[in-house]
Amino acid sequence: MIRIFIISFFATLFTSIAFKAPNKAILSTSFLGGFGSIVFTLVSKAINYQMMSYFVATFFITVCSEVLARLKKMPITVFTVPSIFPILPGVKIYTAVAYLFLKTGEASEAIIEALLAVLGMAMAMVLSSLLTKTINKIITFLFLKTNLQTK
Amino acid sequence: MENINIKEAVTLTKLSAQIILENNGETYRAEETVMFIGRSLGYDTEVISFPIGFIITIADEEDTINTIIKRIKSRKVDLGAIHEVNDLSRKIVDGSIDIHEAIAKLRELHNKREKPSPLLYTAASLSAAAFSLLYGGGLFDAFVSAICGFLVQYVYSNFDVDDNYNFAMSLTSGAMIAIIAILFVNVCNLGNTNIIITAAITPLLPGLVMTTAIRDAMRGDLLSGLARLAEAILVAIALAFGIGAILTLFYSV
Q1: Residues B88-108: tens digit of each pLDDT
Q2: Which string of b and e fits B86-112 if b means at least 16 CB within 10 Å?
Q3: Contacts A–B by Cβ distance under 8 A
Q4: Angstroms from B88 CA to nearest CA on chain A
Q5: Is B211 in Cβ contact with A77 (below 8 Å)?
Q6: Given CB atoms, is B130 within the 8 Å cutoff of chain A?
Q7: Which of A135, B190, B209, B232 has its CA at 20 to 30 Å from residue A120's CA atom?
Q8: Mutate to test the interface with B, among A1, A2, A9, A19 (most CBs of B within 10 A)
Q9: Interface contact flag, A90 B79, Cβ < 8 Å
Q10: How far apart are CA B183 and CA B185, in angstroms?
Q11: Is B233 at the interface with chain A, CB within 8 A?
Q12: What does each of the 253 residues of chain B score in pLDDT, given as a tens digit?
């Protein structure tokens, strides 16, 4: 577990440097990447369904990066993008493609696995974005007594 | 508000939107930035933006209407630039920065053609090495992945990537990675080809583009979401093609 945290920490660190992220965000992004990887490992040990671990890990990462973005006043993609790189299903995508070229008959399972993983991550991002918007609306309604409209 | 020339307002909004879109920023972010800046300067602003360009219209009280259209020819990955534009637009709306200084900073940000620093190359190679360790490789795998990462970053930094060559770049990167991986593994008889190839392509996978696609689709700009999704799929397919071609050549000869 510690090993996974350290390797993901460094992987996210170097990825965010390679993407030229602003200097103040690099340390927190690396920690977020490490913790996201740990959440991913824990969930995949607990539940047998792969898509769920991608979903939960990405949800955790996007919610934390929303919080961090409001704290540090930076756009959200600065925190999200390097942190999901350790979780990105690189092996699955490569296997899908390699099977497509080398063992074409058995490629369909691998392709569907890769697709489900990416879909799980996409759904997590969508849901967390929706959650943040709703919470924002509720907070402004409660504290500023503005109209509860969906605009 | 202040007496800002409409031409300066146009330049300001044009540069901000251009920098955001050129760095794979979300279209809703570009539109919101332009609206904030235009409204805070007291002008009537309208904007439409796409991943490939934008149209801004600014009108003042005497009904002078200025419209500017800009086509974005190439996109790169630079998270820091989006943050800078965000920061600058906040300061402009607060009024805590001089407009001419803001325009100068934006121009400098846009024309930044910095030579790729050694830090960038180091970070690229070390990130590929770290990914190979994450996928269960050993030290030799990490070493070869680092070489692949370095070469890929070198190619991307020294060739001016235009939209025309996006597909070709992914193709050649995939092929290059496969060639190097197969070469090293078979000459030195250590390591695992699959792990090295997977680790070296992970930084090339369209993570930023996918994230931007989803965030744009959530904000209602389905055009941008779908276009970026198609770009992500094309990049993945091109990478796959490059790798697959080399693998087929090697394993069937």
Answers
A1: 888 888 878 888 888 888 888
A2: bbbbeebeeeebebeebbebbeebbee
A3: 141
A4: 12
A5: yes
A6: yes
A7: A135
A8: A19
A9: no
A10: 6
A11: no
A12: 455 778 888 888 899 999 999 888 899 999 999 998 888 888 888 999 998 899 999 888 777 888 999 998 888 888 888 998 998 888 888 878 888 888 888 888 888 766 678 888 899 999 999 999 988 888 888 899 999 999 998 888 877 666 667 788 888 888 999 999 998 888 888 888 888 888 898 888 888 888 889 888 888 889 999 999 888 888 888 888 888 888 888 877 6
For residue A150, being part of any structural domain is answered with: no
List the strands of the sheet with B44-50, edge to edge. Answer: B44-50, B53-59, B65-71
Structure tokens at A37: 């990887």
Rounded CA-CA distance B45/A126 in Å is 29
Residues B2-52 have pLDDT tens digits of: 557 788 888 888 999 999 998 888 999 999 999 988 888 888 889 999 988
Enumerate the residues of chain A whose CB falls inside 8 A of the CB of residue B112: none
CA distances (Å), A105 to each of A96, A113, B240, B246, in order?
Answer: 11, 15, 17, 20
**A20 backbone φψ class: left, alpha, beta (φ>0; ψ -120 to 50):** left
CB A50 within 8 A of CB A113: yes
CB-nearest to B207 from A85, A102, A126 is A85
Please check whether residue A10 is in contact with residue B126, taking contact to mean a CB–CB distance below 8 angstroms. yes
- List the domain boundaries for chain B: 6-110, 118-252
Chain B CB within 8 Å of residue A101 CB: yes
Q: For B215, which of A74, A118, A129 is closest by C-beta distance?
A: A129
Asked if B32 contacts B86 with a C-beta cutoff of 8 angstroms, the reply is: no
* Domain ranges, residue A99: 2-144
Is A149 part of any domain?
A: no
Minimal CA separation from B158 to chain A, in Å: 15
